[in-house]
Every structure is written in C-alpha cells, then in structure tokens.
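Q: Focus on the shape:
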Amino acid sequence: MATQQSKEHRVGEWASIRSTSPEIAEAIFEVANYDEKLAEGIWEQQGNDEVLMRAFEKTDQDVLTWDNVPVERKNV
C-alpha cells in the first residue's frame, strides 16, 4: 500500500515512466528519504540491495522489474 509521501511524489507515475515496478520505485524513494534527485541516482545505479529487499517485502511476487530488467526474489 502506498504511503502518503509516495502518493505526494507520484511514485506510481515515476515508476511507469521508468519501466520499473511500483514496489521498487516506492522502496527507492524510501531509501532516498523522498528526495527525488537522490531517488533518480539510486534508480540509475540499478541493483541497490537495500532497495530490492524493501521492494520484495512489499509484495509476494517473485519477479519485479527495474528499468525493464527482471529481478528475481531468489537473487536478492
């Protein structure tokens, strides 16, 4: 479920534009403390372990997408 902060930052739209799962986008913003510039930098690095752990905690899906790249739960 999206937090109020994530709603304010339109995380879903941000994720869609970047072909990234909403769970990963929300986790990126959490790690970046909702700083959009920092979030963009984290997204560009692709593969931040803290982000991926948080993202998979938000869902029961086994595969999420980061910039059109599938990330499997078993690899986190």
In short: The mean pLDDT is 91. The longest strand covers residues 63-66. The longest helix spans residues 22-31.
